[in-house]
């Protein structure tokens, strides 16, 4: 949607009840992110409590019940976000409660996320914002969670965050909860769609496209700036591809026949 500057102004504050549990006013929680299927969020259904990452606000059809930004001050104090050129100032004037690491004095609506209680209750496996919200929802007895705009694509920079989201959704379902995922544009708990073993290989025994390793692209620093380059996997059967080995101590010979690899040259 391009650069968006949200309106500032108006009274700042909020009910004190927001600062203590239960935080969610209903037992159905919609978590809002920035991908396409945020359009399917239940904006007009009052039985849902909506909680969204601040960066998703330009895509939302209305103000959510909660925001969240669990980053360090060095991150949120940066004014020039791609979606809001006055982000820090916007946080200071926010009129909606927002989960953060601390109740920062300059952000009146900041509510400290109960991290100690969550870590005491659950496994410390949090690599994304949605995981924090799911864990808190479980503690509050939420029975339905919907993901709208939360894809964590396997082929994006968010792929490293995907495993934690899947873990927490699995725990939530095991706990008796219901997970709602938009039918369109959904890849969470749905990729690859083919059942491993039954549909993961073709008639010739080769992996189907969805199961084949994807080319990983990373940023490489150069004098001209960062450039994107493909990552070349190590070929352990090729002398040029294998990393150099340090010689064994005391002149011992390497047992290549038991290593599973060819002799390093």
Write the layout of secondary structure elements.
Blueprint lengths: L27 E5 L15 E6 L12 E3 L4 H4 L10 H6 L5 E3 L9 E3 L2 H7 L7 H11 L4 E5 L10 H16 L3 E3 L36 E6 L2 E6 L35
Parallel strand pairs: 1-2, 1-6, 2-3, 3-4, 4-5, 6-7
Antiparallel strand pairs: 8-9
CATH class of the domain at 16-180: Alpha Beta
Q: What is the rounded Rg?
A: 24 Å
Beta-strand percentage?
15-25%
Head-to-tail CA distance between termini: 54 Å
Morphology:
globular
Largest sheet: 7 strands, parallel
Strand order of the largest sheet: 5-4-3-2-1-6-7
Describe this structure in words.
This protein has 265 residues and is an alpha/beta fold. It has a domain of 165 residues: Alpha-Beta Complex (sialyltransferase cstii, chain A). Helix content is 17%, strand content 15%. It is built from five helices and nine strands, in the order E-E-E-H-H-E-E-H-H-E-H-E-E-E. The chain has a seven-stranded parallel sheet with strand order 5-4-3-2-1-6-7. Strand 8 and strand 9 form a beta hairpin. Helix 4 packs parallel to helix 5. The longest helix has 16 residues. The protein is globular.
């Amino acid at each position: 949607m391009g650069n968006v500057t949200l309106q500032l102004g108006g009274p700042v504050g909020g009910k004190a009840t927001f600062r203590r549990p239960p935080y969610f006013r209903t037992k159905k929680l919609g978590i809002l992110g920035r991908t396409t299927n945020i359009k399917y969020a239940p904006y007009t259904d009052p039985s849902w409590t909506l909680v969204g990452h601040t960066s998703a606000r330009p895509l939302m059809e209305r103000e959510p019940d909660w925001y969240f930004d669990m980053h360090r001050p060095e991150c949120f104090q940066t004014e020039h976000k791609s979606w809001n050129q006055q982000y820090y100032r916007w946080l200071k004037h926010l009129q909606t409660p927002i989960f953060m690491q601390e109740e920062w004095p300059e952000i009146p609506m900041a509510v400290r996320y109960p991290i100690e209680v969550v870590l005491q209750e659950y496994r410390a496996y949090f690599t994304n914002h949605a995981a924090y919200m799911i864990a808190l929802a479980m503690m509050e007895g939420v029975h339905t969670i919907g993901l709208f705009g939360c894809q964590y694509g396997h082929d994006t920079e968010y792929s490293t965050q995907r495993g934690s989201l899947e873990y927490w959704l699995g725990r939530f379902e095991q706990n008796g909860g219901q997970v709602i995922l938009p039918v369109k544009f959904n890849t969470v708990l749905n990729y690859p769609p083919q059942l491993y073993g039954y549909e993961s290989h073709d008639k010739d025994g080769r992996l189907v496209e969805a199961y084949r390793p994807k080319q990983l692209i990373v940023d490489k620093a150069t004098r001209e700036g960062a450039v994107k380059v493909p990552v070349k996997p190590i070929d352990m059967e090729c002398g040029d591809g294998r990393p150099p080995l340090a010689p064994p101590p005391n002149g011992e010979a390497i047992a290549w026949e038991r290593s599973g690899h060819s002799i390093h040259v």
